[in-house]
Every structure is written in C-alpha cells, then in structure tokens.
Amino acid sequence: MEQVLNLLDFEPMTRSGPQWYGRCPVHPSASRRSRAFSVNLHTRRYYCHECQTHGNQLELWAAAKQLPLYQATIDLCRALDREVPWIRNW
To answer: What is the dihedral of CA 16, 22, 26, 28, to 10 degrees?
Structure first.
C-alpha cells in the first residue's frame, strides 16, 4: 500500500501508527489540509469520507487512475517495474 501511495504522491497530514490521514488521491480536494482520506498500512485498506471510495491498494490505483481493474493491474505492475502475473490455462 505504501508503494502505491508514493506513486500517487500522497502526503499524510497526520499519522497515528499504521493509520494515515490526508487529502484523497482519488478526487480533487479544495483544501490542502483535508483529512478526509484514511489508510491503514497494516490492513492495506483505505477509505475516503468525501467520495466514499474504499478498498485495497489495487482498487485505490484503479480509482485514482480511472481505469478498470484489469487495466489497472497491468498499469500498476508496470509502474512498480514488476512482471505482470499472467494467468495461463494449460
């Protein structure tokens, strides 16, 4: 989750252990001090109290990049410089 947040240029306003708060990387916020976005690094889950998006790191990437989940998976693997885990039917 932390790698995805770094790729999205997320800067937490406050931290409380594994819980971080700040501006939502999914929707534009008028306030630079907004804390509507909450992410827990241990559970790898996020929630935005303004736009109601929530999920894991892949769902965050898909929402922030406005991509379907399949395309977001490929895009995130490339952004992290990792091989895409293609599924092969034998």
So the answer is: 170
Dist CA 23 CA 51 (whole Å): 11
Q: Are 46 and 55 in contact (CB under 8 A)?
A: yes
pLDDT classification of 18: cutoffs 50, 70, 90 = very high
- Alpha carbons 68 and 63: distance in angstroms, whole number: 8
> Which top CATH class is 2-79?
alpha beta
* Nearest-angstrom CA–CA distance, 20 and 11: 9
pLDDT (tens digit per residue) in 25-71: 998 776 766 789 999 999 999 999 999 999 999 999 999 999 999 99
Taken as a whole, the chain contains a residue count of 90
